[in-house]
Write a structure and sequence with these properties.
Largest sheet: 6 strands, mixed
CATH architecture of the largest domain: 3-Layer(aba) Sandwich
Number of helices: 11
Strand content: 25-35%
Radius of gyration: 32 Å
Number of strands: 22
Number of domains: 3
Structural class: alpha+beta
Strand order of the largest sheet: 19-18-15-20-21-22
Helix content: 25-40%
């Protein structure tokens, strides 16, 4: 029974007793009741500080704890509720006294978390007050970096067959190796004068040839990447794969960068060491545009840069849709080691493999077969340029891209 219904019941009882007792008795009871209710409300209004421990950034799909506590709760009962914004689940959303919940974000980007709502009931249970303490907070949702870091850890530990790390040859290269005693065959430019003065004998710097590579993830953010596969878009899967490759490049000592584009270049981060964090920062709020992707404009950004391993993440729907990519690849392959990655639609495969039970199923299977044939033609054409093509299921795209990058590294390409 709510405080309002309780008060209404007491008023009804007072009115009913008015016919049996003198008028002053029910009036006195009514005054006492109103006074008790007002006192209950005044007590319920005294809400102390409310602390909410909410991280500023979270990873998509990873449960993160959130805690709401009343530092000095007033007498009575308190019901704490945290409203959840769209595309974010909170379990549970409300609790008595304090709230300890798990927050899981389903969409990348910036989200606004509304203030906490607290319902305080007075000690007599006659009055209740609703509070909205604090202010709204911004929650930044990054891509699924934990999965990418797990793949990177497997590559660094050598648990992926393609993860073969070759050490560069020692000589007059560009990467510092160590300081050793001077040899008559050493180039004079190798002499370390400070070390020589400190030790009292000539010392030389030894270098090795730099075989660490630039890895550039090129992410298509055009309209085709807005297609849904389950609860994610193709762009979500591509962003996760790019972050996984960047994390693996960090683990392998390479430099990672990213280019995201639709009809224009929206992000351009040049390859750098420890670049995974920058790649995630550049891609976390990129959403599919309503225009076709301009591959030629994107390729012009980096076509003449230092030789790199270029991972192009896009959707290979059919030959007309892939024509801009096919036209730009020959120029790109001359200078860079290119990998093209795409996601295979599991619904199309299921339609081709399952036995039809209606005319709709037959038509669906026919469309799936046609699209699969066109897709195979596009993949074959891309492979004929010497490009490594990754055509993977949604759950296997990140691992497939990491393996393709490691294959290119082990072959010494890019």
């Amino acid at each position: 029974m709510t405080p309002t219904s309780r008060a209404a019941l007491l008023v009804a009882l007072v009115a009913a007793t008015g016919a049996l007792f003198p008028v002053w008795i029910p009036l006195t009871c009514l005054v006492v009741l109103v006074g008790a209710t007002l006192g209950d409300v005044l007590v319920a209004r005294r809400l102390g500080p409310v602390s909410r421990r909410l991280p500023a950034t979270v990873a998509r799909g990873t449960p993160t704890p959130i805690v709401v506590e009343l530092d000095a709760p007033p007498p009575g009962r308190q019901r704490v509720r945290q409203p959840a914004p769209p595309d974010i689940t909170l379990v549970p959303e409300e609790a008595e006294g304090e709230l300890r919940a798990a927050l899981t974000a389903q969409r990348r980007g910036r989200h606004t978390v509304e203030p906490v709502a607290v319902r305080t009931v007075g000690p007599l249970g006659l009055g209740a007050v609703y509070h909205r303490p604090g202010a709204a907070a911004e929650l930044v949702v990054f891509p699924d970096m934990p999965s990418g870091r797990r793949l990177a850890a497997r590559a660094r530990a050598g648990r992926l067959p393609e993860a073969t790390r070759r050490r560069g040859a020692v000589g007059l290269g560009t990467e510092f190796e160590r300081i050793r005693e001077y040899s008559p065959d050493d180039d004079v430019r190798q002499i370390n004068w400070r070390a020589s003065a400190r030790t009292g004998r000539p010392m030389s710097n030894q270098y090795r040839i730099d075989e660490d590579r630039d890895v550039l993830c090129v992410v298509d953010a055009g309209r085709l990447m807005a297609a849904q596969i389950g609860r994610l878009t193709l762009l979500d899967l591509a962003v996760d794969a790019a972050c996984a490759v960047a994390a693996t490049a960090d683990a392998m000592g390479d430099r990672a960068g990213v280019v995201a584009f639709d009809d224009r270049v929206r992000r351009d981060l040049k390859p750098r060491r420890r670049g995974a964090a920058g790649v995630a920062q550049a891609l976390f709020d990129v959403e599919p545009a309503e225009v076709d992707a301009d591959f030629r404009r994107a390729f012009e950004v980096f076509a003449r840069r230092k030789r790199s391993t270029v991972l192009v993440l896009t959707d290979l729907l059919d030959e007309p849709a892939a024509r801009p990519l096919l036209e730009g690849l020959p120029v790109l392959v001359r200078r860079h080691a290119v990998i093209v990655a795409t996601v295979s639609d599991p619904t199309g495969r299921d339609a081709m493999r399952s036995a039809p039970s209606s005319v709709i199923d037959v038509l669906r299977a026919s469309v799936a077969v046609t699209l699969d044939e066109q897709r195979r033609i596009v993949v074959s054409t891309i492979a004929s340029y010497g490009v490594d093509v990754v055509d993977a299921r949604p759950t296997e795209l990140s691992a497939g891209c990491v393996r393709a990058y490691l294959r290119a590294k082990s072959r010494g390409r890019g």
